[in-house]
Amino acid sequence: MFTLRPARDTDRAALYRICLETGASGEDATHLYADPLILGHVYAGPYLTHAPQFAFVLEHQDSGDVMGYVLGAPDTAAFETTLEREWWPALRGVYPDPLDVPRADRTPDQRIAHLIHHPPRAPQDILDPYPAHLHIDLLPGAQGGGRGRALMTTLLDALRAAGVPGVHLGVGESNVRAQGFYRHLGFQEVRRAPGAVTFGLPL
């Protein structure tokens, strides 16, 4: 029913759509964002452009629709440097920095625009043991049946083959279901901050 394959640049629109439709702690965030592309610009597009060999999708065999993805970067620090040079500048010309809007008053779009202008850097104590990071999202119609595990296994195998010693990921503190999924795969919680939990897995 589903085929797991390497992502292609022609999948970009599908990845952006999935990113939006899972953008509220796994739930549909379409109603939250005025710009349907802004989440994808942060959490999907950079990986397809700058780490395509670590991008995999789940495609429905009958419809050909892409229903899920896993995206990774083997060297987070290098990836962040690349994006600062080659990805964020163009987007900063499109999305104004909402610095003049108090944080509590920012719309969801403005909160993401702030990330575009001030992307967080992963802390070194996380990068030392877990230099890679990943994002995985599946639409409801692709969830279950071991498909998320299959996507994760494919990416983790690719990271191991590249000699990566460990991988980390972030998940919303309220997304308990996803946290259980990661723990089941062997990830362990390595940091907790207001609203977010970071997990790590040695490879």
From TrEMBL:
Domain N-acetyltransferase as annotated: residue spans: 66-203
Pfam families documented for this protein: Acetyltransf_1
Signal peptide from the UniProt entry: none
Domain of life: Bacteria
Name used for this protein in its record: N-acetyltransferase domain-containing protein
The organism of origin for this protein: Deinococcus radiotolerans
